[in-house]
Write a structure and sequence with these properties.
Elements: H1 25-35, H2 44-57, E1 61-65, H3 68-84, E2 98-102, H4 111-115, E3 119-123, H5 134-143, E4 149-153, H6 162-171, E5 175-179, E6 187-188, E7 191-192, E8 199-203, E9 216-220, H7 223-233, H8 256-265, H9 269-286, E10 292-294, E11 302-303, E12 310-313, E13 320-323, E14 328-331, H10 339-348, E15 354-355, E16 371-373, E17 376-377, H11 394-401, E18 402-404, H12 413-426
Parallel strand pairs: 2-3, 2-4, 3-16, 4-5, 5-8
Antiparallel strand pairs: 1-9, 6-7, 6-11, 8-9, 10-12, 12-18, 13-14, 15-18, 16-17
Helix pairs in contact: 1-8, 2-8, 3-7, 9-12, 10-12
Bound molecules: pyridoxal-5'-phosphate.
């Protein structure tokens, strides 16, 4: 129950979840685009960010696109074409085929499967990294052995157990589309996320670890595939003297002005990661005595980019909370709290938190899609849940007890101390 014991003052300037952190170089490269009049979807900034990102990540080709979602769409489309052949102009490449997808994630991870007329099968989350559960993925291949594509995300900048997932996919001859939108700069066993799958995607959306205001990048080691993505993203023009089209096209290319912003941000990626890491560690220290834990990662295998710091409230310390489709409710209780109470209290003090991603299998738009947990089919034939004991629906549990805390790079130590105090006071 929140008691304002320390007489905490609301923040004068809002503390954001994760806002853009600009350094000045960005304007220089945007100005360069203006001076050279390359105010279009071609130019030096684009070429340079593609080079810089490919070099940083360690892949052969990076294609700059309008957003991370566009990168994921073309990655899924490519995978579909590779698996099932080129689609007719009025059809997606997946044509009803099932695709295994991360369940607890942003919907941008999985929507491209629907764009390509596939059916997403959601794979439950594991508690160790809050990412796709390898055991549930194994189970899914038992239930649907025909599946040949897996879309996996690295949530909040924490690498998933991507080696295990890759081994399972290899065993079943499945391709991987890796959604590294949130995890640019994070590594698993020393290797950058976005490199493990057949295709990777990163995002430069306004709140990501570095930003272009918008923008995304498609990653691959295949020249043919990067050429294809370049072509598709620029309306699928053929090499001809006029506008010649043999395939459906998209207007997905990054603008050279946006690329100027990304180019200016690239040198600061590691600085941002270091700041986010410090925020994560200060929270961890500040909450030592509280019945909460931080969003976890495997210290031996992975180095996250710490994009968002999140907490999970211990089961015993949860006050009663219910969420309808659109509204939360809770009953305040002394010594206990819940995500809703903490988020509302932060908002009262002019700080922005956020619930963790609501799992896709709980979303109205995807309520008919299959959902697989480590112990079996999360939804029965009738769409009813089957109780799977301890590991039953990890995603729903994380959604119930978890929340994202203000994780802005520009938050001062003093401001973060106040956030810690506010959270602590909720358990008063
Ligand atoms: C931000 C995000 C995307 C989409 O990136 P955009 O650039 O906003 O299109 C995809 N997946 C995840 C997990 C994200 O967080």
């Amino acid at each position: 129950m929140f008691v304002n014991k320390g007489n905490i003052e609301p923040f004068k300037n809002k503390i954001w979840l994760s806002s853009p952190t600009m350094h000045g170089d960005e304007q220089k490269w945007v100005a360069d685009a203006f001076e050279k009049n390359w105010i279009t979807t071609a130019g030096e900034n684009i070429n340079e960010v593609e080079r810089l990102v490919a070099e940083y990540v360690g892949c052969k080709y990076a294609v700059a696109l309008s957003c991370g979602t566009a990168a994921l769409h073309l990655a899924v489309k490519l995978a579909g074409e590779r698996l099932y052949g080129q689609a007719k102009p009025n059809q997606g490449t997946l044509q009803g085929h099932k695709v295994f997808c991360s369940d607890m994630t942003f919907d941008a991870t999985v929507n491209p499967v629907a764009y390509e007329d596939g059916e997403a099968v959601f794979i439950d989350t594991e508690p160790d990294t809050w990412n796709m559960c390898p055991k549930a993925l194994e189970k899914a291949f038992e239930l649907y052995p025909e599946v040949r594509l897996v879309v996996v995300a690295h949530l909040y900048g924490t690498p998933s157990k991507i080696n295990e997932i890759k081994a399972i996919c290899d065993k079943h001859g499945a391709l991987i589309v890796e959604d590294a939108a949130e995890s640019f700069g994070a590594t698993y066993k020393g290797k950058q996320t976005g490199l493990f799958g057949d295709y990777g995607a990163i995002s430069f959306n306004g709140n990501k670890i570095i930003t272009g205001s918008s923008g995304g990048m498609f990653l691959t080691d295949s020249k043919d595939d990067s050429d294809k993505v370049r072509k598709w993203s620029t309306q699928s023009r053929e090499a001809a003297s006029w506008y010649q089209h043999e395939e459906i096209g998209y207007n997905y290319r990054m603008s050279n002005v946006i690329a100027g912003v990304v180019r200016g941000q690239m040198p600061y990626l590691e600085e941002h990661i270091a700041q986010k890491k410090a925020i994560y560690e200060r929270y961890k220290e500040g909450f030592k005595e509280l019945p909460v834990s931080m969003n976890p990662f495997n210290e031996k295998n992975s180095e996250p980019n710490y994009w968002l710091s999140c907490i999970l409230i211990d089961k015993e310390a949860m006050c009663r909370q219910v969420r309808s489709e659109n509204e939360p409710m809770y009953i305040s209780e002394s010594g206990k709290s819940c995500s809703t109470e903490i988020l509302e209290t932060l908002a009262k003090f002019n700080a922005e938190g956020r619930p963790v991603w609501k799992p896709m299998h709980m979303q109205p738009i995807y309520r008919m899609n299959p959902f697989v947990t480590a112990n079996g089919n999360g939804r029965g034939q009738s769409n009813a849940y089957i109780d799977c004991g301890e590991t039953f629906d990890v995603g729903a549990d994380l959604f119930e007890r978890g929340l994202c805390l203000p994780s802005d790079n520009k938050m001062t130590v003093e401001e973060q101390d106040v956030i810690i105090k506010i959270v602590r006071s909720c358990f008063g």
